[in-house]
Protein 1
Amino acid sequence: MQSNALKRLLVIGMVILWNVLCPVWAQRTTSYTLVIHGGAGTITRANMSAEMERAYHQSLQRALDLGEKMLAGGLPALEVVEKVVRLLEDDSLFNAGKGAVLTNAGEHELDAAIMDGKNLGAGSVAGVKTIKNPISAARAVMEKTEHVMLSGSGAEAFARQIGLEMVPNSYFSTESRRRGLKRALEEEKKNTPNAPQPAAGISSVRVDWKYGTVGAVALDQQGNLAAATSTGGMTNKRYGRIGDAPLIGAGTYADSLVAVSCTGWGEFFIRMVMAKSLADRVRFGNQSLVKAGDELIQIALPALGGDGGLIAVDRNGEPIMPFCTEGMYRGYVRKEAGSDKVKRVVAIYKD
Amino acid sequence: MQSNALKRLLVIGMVILWNVLCPVWAQRTTSYTLVIHGGAGTITRANMSAEMERAYHQSLQRALDLGEKMLAGGLPALEVVEKVVRLLEDDSLFNAGKGAVLTNAGEHELDAAIMDGKNLGAGSVAGVKTIKNPISAARAVMEKTEHVMLSGSGAEAFARQIGLEMVPNSYFSTESRRRGLKRALEEEKKNTPNAPQPAAGISSVRVDWKYGTVGAVALDQQGNLAAATSTGGMTNKRYGRIGDAPLIGAGTYADSLVAVSCTGWGEFFIRMVMAKSLADRVRFGNQSLVKAGDELIQIALPALGGDGGLIAVDRNGEPIMPFCTEGMYRGYVRKEAGSDKVKRVVAIYKD
């Protein structure tokens, strides 16, 4: 009897110890990182009210809150970047989903892409006008079709068919974006008074000089990486212009070593195949993520005549957020193995 | 007088010598390479008549003739790859321009891209239906706009505006492609009898298992590289599917070291960012072009579940044409410095 009671006590003691130690051990060994951006451009203290600044900070914090909770709960990076980008799409502050900029025709044409570094799975949509959350359509293209990239009304037909939420194009409009297009059109008219049909809409490209793309990259507790990007493109764009965001390897890329999401003057990011360049410099060039990011964004991109920024994370959870514009809406949360603390950064300006 | 006559004789002699030696010297030091493809797929001796084989050989030889003449004449690689791809677009044997396959809707939707390795200039069009030569539209996007990629009716409006030749969509049709779509639709119906709305058109993707993309890459006498690709995509495609051909870095890429044009199951080439991967393995991975091409096409691509091939040339003029399908319409001309001979290869099957 006595020995039985002792045994029972021992077992109970071990169970208690197990239940106390395991979470502590798990907490200490798990690691994850989420990095987000809300676009790069001429974002300076001079042209930002305290109220707007607060609003952007709140939006970025909210996105990090959501992602951190998901990553801490062990959810896969792919799921996290999709849901975080959805939140930013629904947020009218950013040029993606609700709040997207207007094309020359006064419409919204949205692009998005997602990539799963675990298996190089990828999906993207370009030029869609009535899908509420383009990033979820991109994920559906990846998971429910053998295709990677669907465009225009075909992509919308697919989204409708699988039951994604559809909205009228006007859903995406905000007063501020309507003013933006009006300014762009006036500016264009002033610059080219005798050009009722400006050649290829070049003149207006630089008018609304802020790139409100949104993006997220994550490393999950299983060590997998994923990237997602969503955008409304450039104010006053025309001719069915497609930027870098929906192009795998240009604006969005993830493999087993690096996940990347870009924001900036899309044409230069396409020509440099920016996201893939970063990944390959790390994989083949033996460069650190920090060095590769700096060389591409601070040296190679301006040398070619472009600007913008990117966010990336490697399989060690190292986050980078380089940009060569005045500002970039950005932030990250990082939990390192061997530490209980989660580091969190949110920033807008260069300094 | 005598000394004057001697002088005159000496001068005449030198002029003659100059005029004889210079071309010989130039001939011996110039080098250039052109590589072309007309698509990879299930191309076997068993399903090819002698007549068809002859026709394909003739078409490939004609394209090499044109390109070789241009390169020998000192024309830039960019000009050469555009004009060679134009010729292949106009040739109804290949799935690009005239002779393009039909979409599920019974239409032609064409994609093309071009890249200038000299300055990373790039242009592309996707989903165009009435531009006679999509590759020339891609070049115009590169040279006449600040954009890289235009799509659909917007790209067509641009092409019309700058005066490119427009044609009715039916111009691209051939009897053989109409039969191809009919077969694909019948096959699809047989495989999914109860699916009047097949989910995302997956079932039919593998029916017409030949990828008739066309492409050209060249190294010119100035040492510059360029790449061009043009395609009608996949038979029975729908939902505005965009393949790898018009995506810079996926199906088409050129920089100062390597020029690449791909053909195959586009989705896998997008996910691998194939063309840029090849260039980066050479640039950062210290791999030879041959090794990089073999590793990507013979190992990495099949491992992911895809197939196809690519053509590439490096700045030394080395051509490669790896593929992992039964056949690939392909060929090259190469003139090496220090030699008077131009090596020419045209082939279809694996052996």
Protein 2
Amino acid sequence: METKIVLSELEMPQAWYNIAADLPEPPPPVLHPETGQPLGPADLAPLFPMALIMQLVSPERYIPIPEPVFDIYRLWRPTPLYRAHRLEKVLDTPAKIYYKYEGTSPAGSHKPNTAIAQAYYCQQEGVKRITTETGAGQWGSALSLACNYFGLECKVYMVKVSYHQKPYRRSLMEIWGAQVVASPSEDTNAGRAALKANPNALGSLGLAISEAVEDCVQREDTKYLLGSVLDFVLLHQTIIGQEAMTQMSKTADFPDVVIGCVGGGSNFAGLIFPFLGEKLRGGRSARFVAVEPEACPSMTRGIYAFDYGDTAGMAPIAKMHTLGHTFEPPGIHAGGLRYHGMAPLVSHLYNLGLIEATAVHQTKVFESALTFARSEGIVPAPESAHAIAAAIDEANKAKESGEARTILFNLSGHGHFDLGAYDAYLRGQLEDYAYPEDKVKEALTHLPKV
Amino acid sequence: METKIVLSELEMPQAWYNIAADLPEPPPPVLHPETGQPLGPADLAPLFPMALIMQLVSPERYIPIPEPVFDIYRLWRPTPLYRAHRLEKVLDTPAKIYYKYEGTSPAGSHKPNTAIAQAYYCQQEGVKRITTETGAGQWGSALSLACNYFGLECKVYMVKVSYHQKPYRRSLMEIWGAQVVASPSEDTNAGRAALKANPNALGSLGLAISEAVEDCVQREDTKYLLGSVLDFVLLHQTIIGQEAMTQMSKTADFPDVVIGCVGGGSNFAGLIFPFLGEKLRGGRSARFVAVEPEACPSMTRGIYAFDYGDTAGMAPIAKMHTLGHTFEPPGIHAGGLRYHGMAPLVSHLYNLGLIEATAVHQTKVFESALTFARSEGIVPAPESAHAIAAAIDEANKAKESGEARTILFNLSGHGHFDLGAYDAYLRGQLEDYAYPEDKVKEALTHLPKV
């Protein structure tokens, strides 16, 4: 009975899968933050390289992966797909549990799948310098790695709560040559304003985005790159799901349910889109479950509305499930999921009823993480452990009903830089945050008028 | 041009390679610490399970890997062999550089290769509880993982300097259910004596061994397990070299030089023994280079003599390259290499002139680690980076002489739990320690009389 299903480099997908080609209807347009009018490629040119902008509007089902990107992918891809025999045994479930493990990249998560691609396109178009934001540090370290491969300068605005919770994530970025500052910082107007309003602000992904964007537009040689939310980010992550489909085809199973955690939505989308695409084309069918924190539940509690992608209202406006762009999520130990909104494409699918969503409290997340680490061995990132919690729920339901079912989830990264959070959990120091209903209600009064 | 050479589970070796079968002459006997007489199996029974003791005396060239051990190996094995294309380019060398990467195990190093085997044999023989020591925490976390898989209690004496430098290693062990104390501790006579002599003692591997052994012999249900030095540990690690040989055979190359870092000697032995065995049997030939810290240079500066394996003189006496069992190495940021001696089997080979040794200062080690991380991506453990430093030296020599040569080294683990040390290096806070000649001279006056 196989433990892990590995692919050779020859079996690695040569193209990303573009779900736009299979959608029953297109998502609503993205709007300019100042004019409220639909965005065109020219509007995005100050931020992104043209190759990425063209990917946003491409109707092609498959977009070839450039050879230099593929060459770097090969350092850790294809990633393994595991059958969780030991977890199944501990849960005493009739369910079969599979997980795709993206923690084998040098940065320890799925994030390099898009970071490498984005840095490559920037280098091709003569860009010298990159700004970005990072929450838990997963994206910042992935982009630092990518910029290092392609000889680009990199400045990372790191959400302050994570900057202090995860000093080693900062060291990691510096090892790969990046400059890292805590956000809110003194380096931008957005940062200075936030510090003036509250010198002890924990920061948020939204605000860090504002800082990185502001820094970018000041300089001709600089582009701004983003690790989640945008369609092209989701596109680059589809290598995960495509590999997983090939790997599942080497077993006798096909998933009944496919699960991923969601912050901005990219690892979830990366795993499910190829499966969902097959379903949309009339092929095999599965359920798709997005898992978010109870403390920041944009899908299960937010509204589907036009909102800014960032806190300061400089980023484009998109229709998405949102808690309001001014909402500052509690300091849960899963910084990568502390985002007020959800990827427009994921939101669109949710609105169409094609995917489900659920929310989990952090102590349950860490309990699930420990169950996993003590059965499968790998110590998961707290973000990824949200998916584990939901997978365990599905396995328990299968046990209750006595039904066999096949569960597939994305283990999007390892928790080697999150051991401080585990330590807090093991010492009983982690609390669950109630859903901050009043703060969200207030934040939702600040949605842009469109 | 392939980046990594991966094997399927079917290609994984089914047996460990026992170099004893191919040695030109056997190593000197191991002696009882009290009587000075050669040790027999009965003497070791209080410490080790009988299956491991029998492996120490086996004349068989291949010893089958038990199925439950093999099943756990499959969670991360076979590990990849990389061609370091990017490092070669940065060094502008005609040399071909390959590395075997053992950091894909859940504990992040090669150590689980033997931890899993040792825990399995203990469980088979009815043992309930394990004690051990750990330096950098690599071994302690590997054994915690292994004990967790087999339902054994685990108590880890962690060298104090590492306990404080690497708190997350402690968390990792606790995630897998182990109990961890700083050594010297108040839990044993050896620990209390050391604290009385010097309340600020940094600890050492030797002393931590004394504590773990003392704890073990107090209780019937407890065995003591060791992560390096002993012949059976080296045996279990030979899966590394066997896989590497199969992987090299899939390229057009064969190594001219094979390199590994040495603390106790196990990852070095694990990689080189299968290659050396072929050479000893009249097959293909290579050079073998062991790399140690300048601050703890047992091979390049120590003497070849009978000495205790531990600080307190409770462990067996073996002929080895040693700096004296009472020598306390400086607090370099490669805790796994802070051991006063060298594996008797590795020492024997060195004495026979079959292998070479070299020593490196820690700033050069971290400089090499950074060069590696910025070319290949993976952030190496400081211990493993000793091997990188020597590999870079070999590549530079190839460049100077204009000769092609093939270099293979063991990247025995990742540095995800060593980022504090990287941080110190990046901020210019790391110093090199001069070889502590006087302290060694003094320690060598305490060798046992045999």
